[in-house]
Amino acid sequence: MSSYPDVDRPVIGLGVNYADGDVIAPHHHDRDQLLYGMTGLVIVSTSQGVWMMPPQRGMWIPAGTVHEVRMIGKVAVRTLYLSPDPARNMPMQCQVVSISPLMRSLLSEAVCIPADYDPDGRDGALMTLIDHEIRTMPGVPLSLPLPDHPALSRRCQIFMRAPSAHDTIDHWCHDLGMSRRSFTRLFRSETGLSFIEWRQQACTLAALPRLAAGDAVTTIALDLGYDNPAAFTSMFKRILGASPRDYRP
């Protein structure tokens, strides 16, 4: 998909609004992309995994990455397209990132600047500052890596459709016909996470759309198999550094 290939500027801004349920079919850009969601929830899927961007967070998508985008709720997106530059030292795969108050202000300004702005004027200086600020954005653990191993990948996707905090390694070993030792080694080598870490992140990602829709924390916790809301809240805060209620409208 084109992302201003004929415009000779290192950073270009664009603002777009989407309706609840909108889906952008799999595509890729010839520039790096930074998404910032002012409202709503954005889910980005690739062959390597799933990333979920809550409001007031960002999503880094490297150039050439084939990705599908789904909107939950009314989504107001501010997007930057950037000429690839190894000096930024940004991730080589998608990454949810924290957006500082300064960066939010810069993004709001950037989408009002024409694509062919004067690089030596105020607009160029603002875009240069954005390029520097991007390099300081910390990552947020809102991703769920998917394994390449066919049988394990199918089992992960089954779990993602109905995540449960009570699923165990022994249960998965039985389903896959593997020893516990072989399974734990394979799981970490394929996902970069332990089974418990992956399960917790899957439950967290499953909870976010429901929180955004206004569902009660207690209902979500029990549906995900937690014994009580406190156990779910503790896990959620450990992963995201915030309470589930902070993600409700």
TrEMBL record:
InterPro entries on file: AraC-bd, Homeodomain-like_sf, HTH_AraC, RmlC-like_jellyroll, RmlC_Cupin_sf, Tscrpt_reg_AraC-type_HTH
Entry superkingdom: Bacteria
PROSITE patterns reported for this sequence: HTH_ARAC_FAMILY_2
Keyword check for Transcription regulation: yes
UniProt KW Transferase keyword: no
Residue ranges occupied by any HTH araC/xylS-type domain in the UniProt entry: 168-249
Keywords of the record: Activator, DNA-binding, Repressor, Transcription, Transcription regulation
GO MF annotations in UniProt: DNA-binding transcription factor activity; sequence-specific DNA binding
Protein name, UniProt field: AraC family transcriptional regulator
Species the sequence originates in: Thalassospira profundimaris
Organism lineage string: Bacteria, Pseudomonadati, Pseudomonadota, Alphaproteobacteria, Rhodospirillales
